[in-house]
Amino acid sequence: MERPISLGLALRKGDEPPWEYADGGADESPLLDFGDAREGSFFPGLKAASVKSLIPLGEAAGRPLKRLIDPDLGLAFQSSGWGSQYVPPPLVVNAGGFSLHAATLIRKGQRAQLEKLCRYVTRPAISLERFEVRPDGMVSWLLRKAWRDGTKGFVMTPYQFMARLAALAPHPREHQLTYQGVLAPASSLRDLVVPRPVVRKEPKDVDVADEDGSKSAGEPSKDQRYIRWADLLKRVF
């Protein structure tokens, strides 16, 4: 398999790129910096191409993916001026390539709202309902919301689709969750804000009588915190 081309994120106006390759190649965003793991890795190129909606591999590498565009929708966006001067809502900010939404508040005891939030942040990276294999073998991917230029989705070959899926895989030895401040592992205040786990006594196996009078051991108690994997799948799917 050929190595993907080096693709970078666009700089903001007036920014000077402080990073560069030793071989004088194209600049790449520090958001996609994998350090020593970059050598011999396909991930930086795959992730950069995915961010910019470009083809990462093959003879067409670096070219934009084919789009599904609704011209009338794009003209409607332009005529209405919607999104030309986007102002984020309170407690929402976009900076440094990341978006932060801090406007959600869950009070103590609101277990249903907490479960809803947990399902949202742990949702799958893709939705199968927005993918379709066309009669010509191409894969179409519909966006959840159309873009201001009328783009409603993308069309790609199965090979290009697999490359985009590979970009979603976490890179080896790459942390997915990092705690800072008082939640950092070495913080002297961590014990004051992180509750200690409650030590529960393991329930003893109790013989339970079946309908025919026989007894079976090992039935879990009702107050046990363990939830079967099948029941967890039902709650999510």
TrEMBL record:
Q: What is this protein called?
A: Transposase
Q: What GO molecular functions are on record for this protein?
A: DNA binding; transposase activity
UniProt record, GO biological process: DNA transposition
Q: Which organism is it from?
A: Saltatorellus ferox
Q: Where in the numbering of this chain does the Transposase IS801/IS1294 domain appear?
A: 96-184
